[in-house]
Target: Probable purine permease
Amino acid sequence: MKERGEPVVIKVEDLTTQSLIKFTRLQWWVFVVVNIVFLIAGQAAAVLLGRFYYDQGGNSKWLATLVQTAAFPILCVPLFLFPSHREPSSSSSSPSFLTLVSVYFFLGVLLAGDNMLYSVGLLYLSASTYSLICASQLAFNSVFSYFINSQKFTSLILNSVVILSLSAALIAVNDDSEGPSGLSKSKYMIGFITTFAASAIYSLLLCLMQLSFQKVLKKETFAVVLEMQIYTSLVATCIAVIGLFASGEWRTLQGEMDGFQKGRVSYVMTLVWTAVTWQVCSVGVVGLIFVVSSLFSNVISTLSLAVTPIASVIIFHDSMNGVKIIAMLLAFWGFASYIYQNYLDDSKARRALSDMNETHNDPPGQ
Ligand SMILES: Nc1nc2[nH]cnc2c(=O)[nH]1
Model:
């Protein structure tokens, strides 16, 4: 027995990473719910702040890329509170330093690429077109996780993926917000292609993170989630800083701050809070990959696409209409479908475990 409560090893079909983790049932559900809240709240706030930055006169793609990872040092505080503890028994299978560096470096490069493409898409496309293309990431994730993570597709999971994609598409088609004015056709095309590529890279990144947790890191504590986020963000931040200086965009930042419509303090605050909210979101993203799967993490990202317009209704007093309500109900249906699958998998795992324990406790010969 390792920690508070009764530890349970889960090794069943869809909860693939569960074979690595020891949690009591309550701990597992609390962990899932907390990470869902982090992802949805963090992503909704970060996307709205990112759009605010562009709307108020911000124009630097590299700065928008940088703020998606630059606040990673704040994660050192929870890392200090939940230190990584290694089991002596598993130390023989610990990855070498070189393996760890290679994994974090490769994932960090993918993260930087996704962040850059995502920032370009947000700059060049209207919110509606943007969300519509982002909805494709669930389809990409389904394909990648089938091949990379051997994800099993039950009817509940398929239902969830299809319904959530429809919900995000409905939100997008309904959105009548204008794209950035005076945008040339070529810039629109660039925005379209970069957002599509970002969706593919993001999905690949989530699947490879799941694979790394399962095959390389093999640790059982929350610290591994923070370490994954910190090291990949460190690499992505270095790339974004190099991009900011190599592209010469850094020279425009002073003018951008002076010309920001809401003022200089608002400019700095927008960037600081965008950076913080992306970290909150990322802990949720990586936490859900660790404890459930990359596909589930992406399902919650897509759910957040449907929730963001609702946040706009509350914060920016956007109008609410029937289509948004239907899209939201669809999103919750898709979400509930996946959660129910998790519940079934969890129950099955617990049953299998108690059967196994009974067999082990039976006296020999019985
Ligand atoms: N492409 C992409 N990048 C992200 N970075 C954080 N969230 C997302 C997302 O939903 N899609």
About this structure: Residues 170 and 327 are 6 Å apart (CA to CA). The chain has one domain: 25-82+97-356. DSSP finds 13 helices and no strands in the chain.
